[in-house]
Model the fold of this input.
Amino acid sequence: MAGLFITFDGPEGSGKSTQIIRLKEWLEEAGHEVVVTREPGGTDNAETLRDLLVSGDTASWSPVSECLIMNAARADHLERLIRPALAGGKTVLCDRFMDSTRAYQGGGGKLAMDDILAIERSVVGETVPDITFIFDLDPAIGLERAGKRNAHGGEDRFERKGLNYHEAVRTVFRDIATAEPDRCVLIDAAQPIDDVTSTLHKVLQSRGIPG
Done:
């Protein structure tokens, strides 16, 4: 039996990583074999490309270049890690996936969504997430949280793109959740951490997970 593919998307500082760790433990207690990964990244090749994307000057890559690099990383990630894990019956929890490309390069970068989706179809194919949790948070709050996390510099290239950029990113994320309700669940990331965890559990239990 193929495994379960769950992705977590949303703006900077929305608390995805914390919830992924909690959900991994919860699923493992129920007997799932869980693989946690991230985008961009997840494989050696993809992590190399990640370094190009998430650090340095905000203008170092155009939205088109970002989209192509992101999808090159995603193709390797899918081929080497995600698809083999799913074929082995494992549950894959991925911090960001295709929806981030739509939101960041499409919403923030103003790249034509038709172009993004054409590349997405080629790269992702049938490996569409079973469930996507889209964490929703006021970008001003998220950027403040992320700024504290990256106080010593590092992976903050996208955070430095400014509030207007991140407002556009949020809009696309919300639009995706509205357009694809069978796959996507919008999560209020302004809630206390324990409440977010409880919400995730309830959503999964309503779908027979863990099972």
Notes: The radius of gyration is 16 Å. The mean pLDDT is 93. Residues 5-206 form a domain with the Rossmann fold fold (CATH 3.40.50.300). The longest helix spans residues 63-87.
